[in-house]
Amino acid sequence: MERQTFHETIHCDVIGSETFLLTICTKCRDVPEGDIDAALINWVCSCGRCWKVHQAEDGDCEKQRLKRTVVRLGDFQYRFAELVNSLTLMEVVDGYQYPADFEKRRAFPAHPTRVLYKRDARSPAAQEAPIAMTLPVEMRKQAAAVENCVGAVVSLSPALAWLTKGSELKFQELNIRPKPVGQVLFWNTDSGQLERPANIHTVLVVSPDNDRRESSDDTEKQWWEKIGDAGWVLDPTFLQYSFETAVQPIFEYLWTRVWAHDATGQTTSALNSVDGFGSSFHHDLELNRDSDSDLTAVALVNEVWIRAMDNALYHQIEDLGGRDVFLNSSHEDFGRSQDLLERAVISAVREARDSVDAVLFLREATIIDSLRWLVSTSWGCGHGTMMNALQK
Q: What is the top-level taxon of the source organism (predicted)?
């Protein structure tokens, strides 16, 4: 294993002694080459000024690598949920003659949304406390969890499920009141005013796959099994938040909260006619079940965006060598790969946007039927593979 020697003696007020950092492993850290100060991303002592000694024989490398993967998955989720939202967000335009059967609230691209605070996986690891009191209050409010609305969850769920399938991590979803704050905020308006507070919010988590572990005795559990009991919240601003609550596999959430209910709350399978289990269409109906508006067109449009993104992500990641190569690449390679993925998704979603706009503005009399046809033609092997990973 490649190592770099780094000698520094620091007096620690917490442990009351001097800490001597012996070696730093260069295989599992996720910082720019040569950025030694930020190398021990989650080994920072609570005093904030010293580090623990890296001992590979104690499993530190594996632990660090998994935490690095969680950060990368979080960065992936942030980047592409924000990207697709900015490319496809709809707003009302005064003076346009809207078709009678189309939801008037959304018909044109709106200004891109802005995430209040996030840490790009390519930047040096933050060493401050999980919720630094020096941050503005708006940032602290949503620093305890990845900010997500249902749209962001459904848009990245297939890709995240596929990326973690077969790995030591499994993708799950959790509904909780984030600690230690009472709300998280998904986005804010251009005027800077906070919007969409939610006391109960959806949080994406990744935890070790405990289903493959046979031991039920806590004393016999490995570190990853104990951590997995609470779940890893996917948050690039900090690596680990443990919530004392049960996690729910994403496919169970989709089944119990979305697919098995129609807009009136009655159990049915009729909605399955659009795309099948777990589609954006069902999420939109679930989210707006108390609304008088007909959101069918909006739901179908969202499904087109997701399929375009999934197909682009899948083919680009396969071209890079597959999901394992993508997630385990070096710091610089991962950053370059993210940029390639972003360009591929932008191209695919813009093309899909052109197709959707043609339906919305050229086929006013048959918008719903035309959108259903567009959804049916947008299925690809990438989206299909990711949906299969999501369901299993």
A: Eukaryota
